[in-house]
Amino acid sequence: MAAPRLFRPAARLLSSRLSAPRRPAFPQSACAPSILRFRGYATEGGVKEVTVRDALNEALAEELETNPKTFILGEEVAQYNGAYKVTRGLLDRFGPKRVIDTPITEAGFCGLAVGAALAGLHPVCEFMTFNFAMQAIDQIINSAAKTHYMSGGIQPCNVTFRGPNGFAAGVAAQHSQDYSAWYGSIPGLKVVSPWSSEDAKGLLKAAIRDPNPVVVLENELLYGQAFPMSEAAQKDDFVLPIGKAKIERPGKDLTIVSLSRCVGLSLNAAAELKQKYGVEAEVINLRSVKPLDVETIVQSLKKTGRIMCVESGFPMFGVSSEILALAMEYGFDYLTAPAVRVTGAEVPTPYAVGLEQMSFPQVDTILGQATKLLRL
Amino acid sequence: MTLDVFKEDDKLFSVPIAEDSFDTYHLDPPPYSVETTKRELKQLYHDMTLIRRMELAADGLYKDRKIRGFCHLSTGQEAVAVGIEHALTKHDKLITAYRSHGFTLMRGGTVKSIIGELLGRREGISYGKGGSMHMFCESFFGGNGIVGASVPVGAGIAFAQQYNDANNVTIDLYGDGAANQGQVHEAFNMAKLWNLPVIFGCENNKYGMGTSVERASAMTEYYKRGQYIPGLRINGMDVLAVLSAVRYGKNFVQAGNGPLVYEYLTYRYAGHSMSDPGIAYRSREELKEQRANDPISNLKERLIEWGVFSEEDAKTIDKNVRSKVNDEVAEAEKMAEPETKLDILFEDIYVRGSEPQQRRGRTIDETYYRG
C-alpha cells in the first residue's frame, strides 16, 4: 500500500479544494412527490379528465413559471406551438427568451442545450420525435450523460430531453422506433416513460428538477388520450419520484410489467383475463426505465409466481430482456413458470397497416401469452 | 413574340429564358436559352401536369382516410423535379428527402405504383413497406425521412460514380430546412476535397415545416452556402430555367470541375404534410401571389405564345393526364394489401439468401425460422 500513501497529500489537497462548494448535494426534497407531503389523493370530486398533451403542457408551464433557469428549445416549439402542440401557448406566456424555435439541426441544438446546462441553466430540449434525436445521440450520451463522472463530480448537467418515442400510426421505419433500451443502457442518464396524464406531468416535472440529464420518452399516440387526474396532481408542486413504478392494477395470479402505451394494452388484457377466466393479473407501470424499480417488480413476482413483460421495443437486448433477466436473478426461486415477454417484432416498422399491427403488441397478443403462461 | 418553331416535333430550336432566372456565385451563368424540341416542351408540360394530378389524387385519398401517416405533397414544386429529370440520363443518380412523389414518378415510378404504395398495397413501389417517404427505383435512392441525412449519402453515390469511372452526375437534393444541418456541410467539404461529381440542390420552398427561412437561417442565400463550391440560384418555378441550369451543371461537373451547390427557388402550395393546413405561418395573400406564378401555367402560356401548342392541345393533354391518373388510382385501389404473414413481415430485412435463419416476432410463438 505504499503507492497510495505517496499520493495521499495531493489527493487530500484536491479533495479539500473541490469539496463542499463545488459539489453541492442535491436536496432530495425538491423531487419528493407532493402526494407524500399532502397525504394522499383528493376526493373523487376533485378529479379532472386531462389529456397527456395538456398534462405535459402544464408541467412545462409550471416549471417555466417557477424556475427562471428553465427554458425550452426545439423545432417548431414556439410560433407553431409545437409539432404535436405540447408547447401550445408557451411562447405567448413566457416570450421568445424562454421558448425558442431552433433550426432543424438536432446535433447542434442538442449540443447547445447541453452546453447551457453545463453552464448552469436547466434547459428542456424537445425533439420533434426521438427518431430525430439519433442525429444528436452523441451529445446526449458523450456530452450530457458522461460529463459529471468524467469531471469527478465537478460538472453537473441539468438538462431534460423530451419528445415522442416509439411508433405512431403509418409513419414507417425511420419514424417508428422505441429508444427505451438505448437510453436505458447508459450510465449517467435517467430515463422515464410516462403512460397516464399524472405520469406525464409528475415525471416531466421531476425530470426538469433532477440535477442530472433525464430523457423523457413520451408517446405520440397517447398525447390526445384523456386520463383522470387527481386534485393533488393538478397542483403545481406535483412531482413523481424517478425510479418508482406504479401498480396500476393489483392482482395475485400474474405480474405484467409494462411501460408507456403498452400499460393501457396490458390493463385491457388484464380486464379480459378477469372477465373470461377469473384471473387477477397485477399490472405494473414502470414509469421509470432507468433507474428501474426492481423492488416493486420482484415483490410482485414473489406474490404471483409468474411474470410477463410487455413493451414495444425490438425484442433483442431490450427492456423486457432486462426485466426477464432480473426476474431470474432476484426471483428464480419464486417463479412457477418461465418468464415471458411480448415485444415489438424484430423488423423495421412496415408502412402497410396489417403488417404494422403484426409488428407491435396488441391486446390479443398479450392475452394469448398470458393464457399460455397460466395454462388456461 | 412568336418563335420560329419548326413544324416537325423533333427538330432542335432554341427558346429563351428570362434574364432574372439565375444568380451566380463564383460561376458563370448557364445559357439564357434552351435547345429543345416541340416534343420535349410538350413532354415537360405533360410531366408537370402528371405530377400535379397525382399529388392532388393523393390529397383526396388522404382526406378519404385511405392514406395513413405522413404524406408530403409537392404541388407548386413540379418544375424542379421535371426540369432536373429532362437534363439527366437514367445513368445519372438522384437522391432526395421525404417530398419524393414527383421525383419517384420522374425517375421511372408509375402513378399506380406510387399511389399503391401510399395506400399500403403489395404492388406499391416499395411493396407496401415504405409508404410516402420511402420510394426507390433504379438510379433513384429515395425517399429519405431524416432531415439532412440523405445529403452525405448523395455524396457517397457520387463517390461511387467517380470510383467506377462512370462519367455521370449525382443530383443530391434537400430542403431549405435541411440546409442548416451539420452533415450537409460535412458533405460539401468532402465533395470539394475529392472533386466528386455531384450537384447539391437545395429546394428552397421558403418554409422548413412552419418556420420561414428567415427564422431558421442566418444566411438565406443557400447557393452560397458551399463557400468554396461554386453556386447557382435558379428560378425553380420555371422548368426551362431548371432544365438549362442542370444541363449546364452536368457538363461542368462531368468536365471534372468538382461539385456545385444549386438552389431552386420554389414554393409548396400545400402544408408541410397533410396534418399541416399550411396557413398558420403564411398569409392567404402570399399563397395567392405564389399561385399566380404557377409553374404549369407559366409554361403553358409561353408554349401557346411560341406556337408550340394551342390552348386546345393543352386541354387535351390535361384531359389525358386526368384520365390516366384516375385509371391508375382505380387500379391501385384494387391492389391487394400485403398478407399479414410472418413470411411477408420478415421478407427483405436482409438480402435474399443471406438472411439469418431466425427472426423474432412479438412473442416466442411468433419466432420465424427458415432453415
From TrEMBL, chain A:
Q: What is its main location?
A: mitochondrion
Location of this chain's protein in the cell: Mitochondrion
The positions making up the signal sequence are none
Q: Name one GO cellular component term.
A: mitochondrion
Q: Which domain of life is it from?
A: Eukaryota
Single Gene Ontology BP term? pyruvate decarboxylation to acetyl-CoA
Annotated Transketolase-like pyrimidine-binding domain residues: 50-225
EC number annotated for this UniProt entry: 1.2.4.1
Cofactor(s) demanded: thiamine diphosphate
UniProt entry tagged with the keyword Ion transport: no
The UniProt keywords, alphabetically, are: Metal-binding, Mitochondrion, Oxidoreductase, Potassium, Pyruvate, Thiamine pyrophosphate, Transit peptide
InterPro entries, sorted = PDHB_mito-type (IPR027110), THDP-binding (IPR029061), Transketo_C/PFOR_II (IPR009014), Transketolase-like_Pyr-bd (IPR005475), Transketolase_C (IPR033248)
The GO terms describing molecular function are:
metal ion binding; pyruvate dehydrogenase (acetyl-transferring) activity
One Pfam family matching this protein: Transket_pyr
Reaction it catalyzes: N(6)-[(R)-lipoyl]-L-lysyl-[protein] + pyruvate + H(+) = N(6)-[(R)-S(8)-acetyldihydrolipoyl]-L-lysyl-[protein] + CO2
First-level EC class: oxidoreductase
Q: Which CDD domains match?
A: TPP_PYR_E1-PDHc-beta_like
Q: Which SUPFAM superfamilies match?
A: Thiamin diphosphate-binding fold (THDP-binding), TK C-terminal domain-like
Q: What does this protein do?
A: The pyruvate dehydrogenase complex catalyzes the overall conversion of pyruvate to acetyl-CoA and CO2.
Q: What's the name of the protein?
A: Pyruvate dehydrogenase E1 component subunit beta
List the lineage, top down: Eukaryota, Fungi, Dikarya, Ascomycota, Pezizomycotina
Automatic annotation (TrEMBL), chain B:
Q: Name one Pfam family in it.
A: E1_dh
Q: Name one GO molecular function term.
A: pyruvate dehydrogenase (acetyl-transferring) activity
Q: Which reaction does it catalyse?
A: N(6)-[(R)-lipoyl]-L-lysyl-[protein] + pyruvate + H(+) = N(6)-[(R)-S(8)-acetyldihydrolipoyl]-L-lysyl-[protein] + CO2
Write down the required cofactor(s).
thiamine diphosphate
A Gene Ontology biological process noted in the UniProt record is: pyruvate decarboxylation to acetyl-CoA
Which EC number(s) are documented for this chain? Answer: 1.2.4.1
**Domain of life per record:** Eukaryota
Q: What does this protein do?
A: The pyruvate dehydrogenase complex catalyzes the overall conversion of pyruvate to acetyl-CoA and CO(2).
Know the name of this protein? Pyruvate dehydrogenase E1 component subunit alpha
